[in-house]
Every structure is written in structure tokens, then in C-alpha cells.
Amino acid sequence: MYTQTGAAVEGATSDTSPSHTSPYPAGRPHSASDPHIPFAYSVDDLPQANGTPATYTSPAPNPVHREHLISLLDRWEFEPHKLSEEDVLACAGLLFEAAFEIDGLQEDVGVCYDQIPPFLRAVRKIYRTQNQYHNFQHALDVFQAVYWFLCRAGVAPPVQILSKTNKGGSSSKFVNAGIGLGQMGASGKWRRAKTQGRIGILRNVDVFALLLAAVGHDVGHPGLSNAFMTNADTPLSRVFDHKSSLEQLHCALLLRLMHKYGMGHLLMTRPSLPVKTTSGGKAGLVSYASSPSLNATYQQQKSSAESGLRQPHGFRWLLVQTVLATDMSVHFDWIKRFKEYATSDSSGGLRKVPEDEERLMICQALIKLDLMEYPSTGLASCSKSGRVRRRLSKS
């Protein structure tokens, strides 16, 4: 397993450098897990003339076009750069909509799908449109590839589950490219069948964390590299002690957005009351026990603490460490640990790798694999990516 111990995870770097005037409050620790960091990126909606927050609505694609987008998302050769901005946003929403067809996912994470569209609009807003590579199109590309792998492993349903052609049919089963098999349960939701390999250890909360990491892994990217910012000794790089500064920025912004859009309960060290949108559209609190997966994690943490054993890590740790693993400067260290993990076997009925660390390694492997998947997506897509990267390397 590979984890990093920068400000996003262990706490903070203090603002003590005398050589510059910090844009951050003096004497206050800076942590990417703090939802109140005053970055120069606003996660708030721009105010209207009367001072009230502006609301952004995107028209839903017509049924025929929606079916077209669904068919595109179920292909490995997905090319988001050919889509309009609204279609890119719609595709991100469709992927989450398909994920919410998983039986028990909404209950396990304490989030309903109605919270996702405004969250995605806010995420897209903070991705810089002038960034030719690390933009929302790239985020969707990685997001779709991550989902594609989960689908083919039988952990998530195919996006075709949203197609009207699958509604009311005689078959209640959906085959994931002949590899995984899922079945519609009595609740009308998709249930995974037995999955092959270690990926089956992923729970619903882990799948949700991975999808959030995929769509937000480059949010707010300024278009500069970590190496450039370290050499230039930029304020952002100093804040994070020159350790994965960009990735820690992405974590900070992603976690702030989660707090803003009713997902903050997932980020608590001790998971607290999930937020649930009622029929009236207002956020209300429900009992902690109504989220079985989070409750089970907390009970395991509590039991481990009382017995003096190692406590399992939670949702925030998985999310943050998955994003931090996208820093390519730590890639070869990660590969070394992954090889050790891949060769680990069960001994005496006990895994050498704790389950939470195994889940993290799988999530990190999936997102890293998708960041390097361009050579396998076809010549046209790979060539476009290469042209953009060459252009960026010369700028």
C-alpha cells in the first residue's frame, strides 16, 4: 500500500516562513481536510445582482440524445473531447446515476442522487476551462474509465441499466461484457453477483469514494507542475511543504465541495449523522444507524480502539490517499508496494494486508491505470492526448 503523509492527511504545515507574506491567516494550520481553507478558488455560487446566490441549471438531454450518451459511456473508446460542455456534464451525471442503481449504495453513503447534479456543476466550475489538459473533459475521461473497469469487474452495473430499452423487459439480468453478472433485486436495484478476484472486497462506500476521487482528482489544476511550483517556490507549494502540492490542493477543494453539498458526514473521523434530502428539497438529519456500512466501520473502529488493536481507516482517508496517488513523482514507490501487495498470500486464514489497505491499493491502482490508459483507447484519442502534452511541454 502507498500512503502519503502531507498536510492533506496528517494535519498541517505551519505558516512560519519569514521570506514571504502568506495569503493565509497567520498562525492557523492549513489542512486539505479543513473545509474552511481560504484558497483563491471559490466553491460558492457567484451572487446575483440582488446578492442572492445564483443557481445554475442545465437542461436535461432529450430522450433520444440521452440514449446516445448512454451508449457512448458503455464503450472503452469513449472520447469526451468530441462532446459539448453540456454533454460532458450530462455524462458525468449519468455515470453517478448508474452507480446509484447499486442496491444499498444510497443508504450506505447517506447521500441521494439529487445532491449529485449541483455538486458536479460546482466541480466543473472550479476546473479551469483554459487548461488544455487538466480540465473537466479529462476528469470525465478518467471517471468513465474507472467506472468501465468497475462495471467489467461486476462491482457496478453497466450504464445501459439507465436505457429505456432495459425498462420493463422480460430479463432481470445485466451482463457486464460477459465478465461480471449482476441481477435486479426485489427492490428494483442492481445487485452484484459473485465477483472474481480481490476487487470484490470493495464495498459500496469504497466505490462511491473512488468515483468522487476520479471526477475531482484534478479540480482547480492551475496548469503548472509540482516541479515548476517547487522550483519557483510558489505560495501554494510552500503551504504544502513542496509535497504533492497540486494533489493536496485537489483534495482540499474536493473536500470543501463535499461539505458544501451535504456529504460532509462522510469525512468525519467518527462518522456522524448523514445528510438526506427530503421530498421538500431541504437537508435533514437521519439517524447514524440508517447508514449500515458507515455504522459498521465505526463499530469496527470503536471495537479496535477498545481492544488496543489497529483501527481501520475511514472514507476520507481512502478518498484523499486515492487522489494523492495520482502524483506521478511517487509512482515508482507505489509500483514497488503494489508488487509486494500483489504477491501477498493468505496465511493461517489472515491476510497479510489489512482490508482497508487492500481496498486503498485497489482504488489507487484503478485510478492510476485510468490516468495511463490513452495508448489503449485508439489511435485518434491517443494522438490528441499526445499533441496536447507536447504543446504543454513546450509552453
TrEMBL record:
Keywords: Hydrolase, Metal-binding. Residues 13-22 have a biased composition (Polar residues). It comes from the Eukaryota. The keyword Protein biosynthesis does not apply. One of its GO terms (molecular function) is 3',5'-cyclic-nucleotide phosphodiesterase activity. PANTHER family: CYCLIC NUCLEOTIDE PHOSPHODIESTERASE. This is PDEase domain-containing protein. It comes from Thanatephorus cucumeris (strain AG1-IB / isolate 7/3/14).
